[in-house]
Description:
Layout: H1 4-17, E1 40-53, E2 58-74, E3 77-82, E4 85-92, E5 95-103, E6 106-117, E7 122-132, E8 147-157, E9 161-172, E10 182-193, E11 198-207, E12 219-230, E13 233-242, E14 250-259
Antiparallel strand pairs: 1-2, 1-14, 2-3, 2-4, 3-6, 4-5, 6-7, 7-8, 8-9, 9-10, 10-11, 11-12, 12-13, 13-14
Amino acid sequence: MIPILKKSAVFIFTLLVSTNASASHPLVTDDTGTQGKGKFQIEMNSEFASDSRDSGTEKEHSGEAAATLSWGIADNIDLVTALPEKWLSIKSNGITSQDASGIGDMTIEMKWRILDDEATGLSLALKPGLSIPSGDKEKGLGSGSLSGGLTLIVTRAGRLGAMHGNLGFSRTEKGDEQNRRSIWHASVGTEINVTGALRAVLNSGIESNEEKASATHPAFLLGGIIYSVAENLDLDFGLKYALNNTESDRALLFGLATRF
């Protein structure tokens, strides 16, 4: 693991150079909301994950610090870019077998809201994107291959909160004998209005296992809160847990979002 001061510096640096995003962190599931023409949103998000394997003899600690910029090029279209800083540490029987940090894969996405029915609160969006292999695959920081994907996003908003659903597909440019080229993702997220400034969130999802040899696909359950400090400033916190042994055991998420 890299020292905490270095992580903080990396976090601030990442904010200045890039951004990856779901619209309402700590939710993994995206929503159909866009910024509006000529408006921006910056998110600063972090995730710290831990995982134990082989009856506890192998332990992995990983993390990511990312700053996300969403730019409204039209009232219903956002452009989003991302370049996270990642770190990874693996110990086997107390001995460090891997310790790496650096830039992850860059992503470029566009969120296009294609339907917005105010009467029912139902909206739909499409989110195509590219992942550029800027991270080091040998160090476990990137995929090593260009990939493209598309996500269908559904949101149903109401007086008490909102529900979001995502169904996504991505495919890498190059495949190999061990890993799948095509990955599916499905998730559902819920926001509950506790007070005018506080929202509780619950999220669950599943994704294809990248390893061809495994028929168990990673699944998670996440809970958290979003607190609006001001009209254009939100703070958030979340805890993510594994629903099976192919997902990281647990993760701590926190971040902030500001709009202008």
